[in-house]
Amino acid sequence: MTSVEPPRSGVSPIIRLLRLHQWVKGAFVLVGPLYAGALFKGSADVAVISAVVAFGLASSACYILNDIRDAEADRSHPRKRFRPIAAGQVALSAALVLMAVLLALSLLMPWVPVAIDRFGLFSEPAGSRGASLALSATLLLYIANTTLYSLYFKHRPIIDVMSLSLGFVLRVLGGCAAVMVEPSTWLLNVTLFLAMFLAFGKRLGERRSLGEGASQARGVLSRYSDELLRMVVVVTAVACLITYAGYVQAQSARYTWGFNLLWLTMLPATYGLLRAIHLVERGEHDDPTQLAINDRPFQLASLLFGGLTVGLMLWLSQPEPLSPPSPPAMVAPARG
What does 188-240 look like in DSSP terms, one character per residue? Predict the structure, then answer.
């Protein structure tokens, strides 16, 4: 079983309650605008940043609800027992007020670009009412899905992972909505399979690290077996890689300069997924988010993947790139 140290006493329980480290999942909000070429456009970045913050605030609010519901079970978990509500460091009334404030702020964030436009800070519009409405609707779906997860789905095998994965897909859709671009099937499939891999990997990691206490800490784990979880972790990882490989192949004309340069991103992507499986199998991490924060090789693979992807996109954005671009792009412009 992995030994777990209590959190540093210098960090406020209220700050820990927000789980700000989970905001790293906001990177999924950036994916659609990145592949659509809508990032680094000045005014459009305001809408994207607003979407990232909106999902971060909403996720913190939903985590508070989850922690309230799970306080009793968390007390038997080697890591979760240090959560502020389970540890009795934050009162229930204070947690409820904070949750309501976070939800309100989250639903206001999509309208920040529209408000900025009233002051004329940018020569081009930073947003539109249509984009704000679309992002607001996506946020409401995210909040509803996450609430249903906390209340019901988390106790049901398979649907628990599907619900968690939908949260990642909704982040991607929210990013696309913020800049009014249409997500492609490639993008949605890669996101879905990657999110399922992360969620199933977390469940396998918990069974590995908690041993016989796994089902006590998370009841749904008693309805999974190690064999099933190992199988679906591998299946979803392979599905993610194959889907992304299909996208890379479809982009051969766009990125070819002697050979398809985008293929280079397959190397860190493959290593990162296999590294995650290796560490989860050994029980060194029971949370892929913690793995991303703490494991240096995984971090390096992620940085290499991101650096190669962004670098190639910037290369193609030059007025006269070395090879002519051609569709399809990862994200297509919205119709109408």
Answer: HHHHHHHHHHHHHHHHHHHHHHHGGGHHHHSGGGGGS-HHHHHHHHHHHHHHH
pLDDT of residue 144: 97
- For 6-42, write each residue's pLDDT tens digit: 555 556 889 989 999 889 899 999 998 988 877 777 7
Q: Who has greater pLDDT, 327 or 126?
A: 126
Structural domain boundaries in the chain: 13-180, 184-328
**In angstroms, rounded to a whole number, what is the distance separating the alpha carbons of residues 169 and 78?**
30
Domain 13-180, classified CATH 1.10.630.10, yes or no: no
Tokens of 283: 């029980």
Predicted local distance difference test score (pLDDT) of residue 121: 62
Answering whether pTM is above 0.90, one says: no
Q: From CA 166, how far away is CA 259, in angstroms rounded?
A: 35
What are the b/e assignments for 290-329, b being 16+ CB within 10 Å?
bbbeebeebeebbebbeebbeebbeebeeeeeeeeeeeeb
Give the whole-angstrom CA distance, residue 309 versus residue 254: 13
At 188, the amino acid letter reads: L
The token pair at 263 is 């293929």
